[in-house]
Design goal:
Elements (H helix, E strand, L loop, with lengths): L2 H7 L6 H21 L7 E3 L7 E3 L5 H14 L3 E7 L5 H14 L2 H15 L2 E8 L2 E8 L3 E7 L2 E13 L2 E12 L2 E10 L4 E3 L11 E5 L6 E4 L21 H20 L4 E2 L6 E4 L5 E4 L21 E2 L6 H19 L16 H7 L2 H31 L11 E7 L7 H13 L5 H9 L3 H6 L1
Antiparallel strand pairs: 1-2, 3-17, 4-5, 4-12, 6-7, 7-8, 8-9, 9-10, 9-11, 13-16, 14-15
Helix pairs in contact: 3-5, 3-9, 4-9, 6-7, 10-11
């Protein structure tokens, strides 16, 4: 189901000027999703041979690998959440409640996967809601969200699209979040996909209200995440995929990778035989099919004026594997450059940085890019935890004496205060050889000893 169809079915929820503004961007998201899934308008090429036709070329899967690498880089070692409150409940109680909500909703397992799709599609949304008096999280890809209200601080209004099936029928639920004065309004609209028309909510959701208003709600009940990249496609609040400006490199990678596989197919052993050694027989289609019987060991007489005509020649060509591998490595480094990663970050041969701590120790371009992405992710997580606390108050899990300005949330990524041991030791040895630090200081750095322990030795 295309994003354009979902958008077309619910244009009544958007002003006309927003309809034209977002249609192009939503089409771009559809293209990014196609590339991320292994597609692309370059994935088909003409076949060789007499019959011709088209064939699907092999894909290296570099788009998926890039998004997975960025997700692991930004959240591979997860994060620590801290809470500060001068009122009741105490920070420990808040932390236990939030930790329980995250654990129950599979946050630590789902969030890295959510980030991977966020990098691929250019955006993603996490909605916090109540169900059976419990706080729940819903992870939504950028292809299922249409932002409608935003400012320089971010997106605070939009339409969340959910696809569902009931009794063999497929539906789309459009959940519109918007701020109107002091009210926070949630409007639900239901579409029947097969009939392509709007239907009543009670047909599928008898207990779901068409409109819900919340007074004096200062924040949205969803959090909009996006990569730390400027959207150079249009002036909209939509983020931009890390694949958006890398389509040409991804195309080249697939072409070279496909050529490598074809090198083994087309470069296999070729034997040239005289025409007189070719046999033929008629197939079911009535056509004459010629072949050379490699198992025929019986001597046969052939008529030829030139003895050279009867020679069987091995015409195999040399495989160009190293040239293809070098080209792939070069193209992967170009992809790293476009994504803000250091050369070798996506290499399958060189020993480039792989963990967040190694990246931090080396202080590379990858580290700077990781820091930029993590800054926006940190802001999003701070808002997400604030929404969990807010819903905890609404459900009664947390006391109502806690005000928004009385609880501070602090997000610290686990890798931001760590240093890779090998890099730290190597740095200490270099400083010692350069005479910048003495032997005792070097021992302290290498073995993690205190000053007293070094002098005792």
């Amino acid at each position: 189901m295309s994003i354009n169809n979902m958008f077309r079915r619910n244009t009544s929820l958007l002003p006309i000027k927003q309809q034209s503004r977002f249609s192009t961007e939503l089409s771009e998201i559809s293209l990014w999703k196609h590339i991320y899934a292994g597609g692309g308008n370059w994935r088909y090429a003409r076949k060789g041979g007499i019959e011709g036709g088209m064939r699907r070329i092999n894909s290296l899967g570099a788009a998926k690998a890039l998004c997975a690498e960025l997700s692991a880089l930004c959240f591979s070692e997860q994060a620590d959440f801290g809470f500060m409150s001068k009122a009741s409940p105490a920070p420990k109680e808040i932390g236990e409640f939030v930790s329980g909500v995250l654990q129950d909703n599979g946050f630590w397992r789902c969030f890295p996967l959510f980030l991977e799709k966020m990098f691929a599609l250019g955006s993603g949304v996490i909605k916090v809601y109540c169900e059976n008096n419990e706080v729940k999280l819903n992870y939504i890809g950028g292809d299922k969200f249409i932002p409608t209200q935003y400012d320089e601080k971010g997106v605070y209004g939009g339409i969340i699209i959910s696809c569902l099936e009931r009794d063999g029928r497929r539906f789309e639920l459009y959940e519109k979040h918007e701020k109107s004065g002091i009210d926070y309004i949630i409007t639900n609209t239901l579409f029947d996909i097969e009939k392509d028309k709007q239907i009543e909510l009670k047909e599928v959701f008898p207990n779901l209200q068409k409109e819900t208003r919340v007074k004096n709600l200062k924040k949205s009940l969803f959090v909009y995440f996006r990569p730390a990249s400027v959207n150079n496609i249009g002036d909209t609040p939509l983020g931009i995929s890390v694949l958006a400006n890398a389509a040409d490199i991804l195309k080249s990678l697939d072409i070279v990778f496909d050529s490598l596989e074809r090198e083994f197919v087309l470069g296999k052993k070729r034997i040239i035989v005289p025409v007189s050694a070719i046999k033929g027989e008629y197939g079911d289609d009535g056509k004459l099919h010629r072949f050379f019987d490699t198992g025929d060991e019986v001597y046969q007489a052939f008529s030829a004026n030139d003895r050279e005509e009867l020679k069987i020649v091995d015409n195999s060509s040399e495989l160009r594997v190293s040239e293809h591998v070098d080209a792939l490595e070069e193209l992967l480094d170009l992809l790293c450059m476009q994504a803000g990663l250091s050369p070798g970050a996506l290499s399958y041969k060189s020993s480039g940085a792989r963990t967040a701590t190694e990246v931090l120790s080396q202080g590379t371009r990858t580290h700077r890019t990781k820091t930029a992405h993590q800054q926006l992710i940190r802001e999003g997580l701070t808002d997400l935890l604030g929404n969990i606390i807010l819903l905890g108050k609404i459900t009664g899990a947390l006391p109502f004496t806690l005000n928004d300005d009385e609880c501070k949330v602090n997000v610290v990524f686990a890798d931001s205060v760590m240093q890779d041991n090998s890099a730290r030791i190597d740095n200490a040895v270099k400083l010692f050889k350069a005479g910048i630090i003495d032997k005792n200081r070097a021992l302290m750095e290498v073995y993690g000893l205190s000053g007293e322990e070094v002098h005792d030795e």
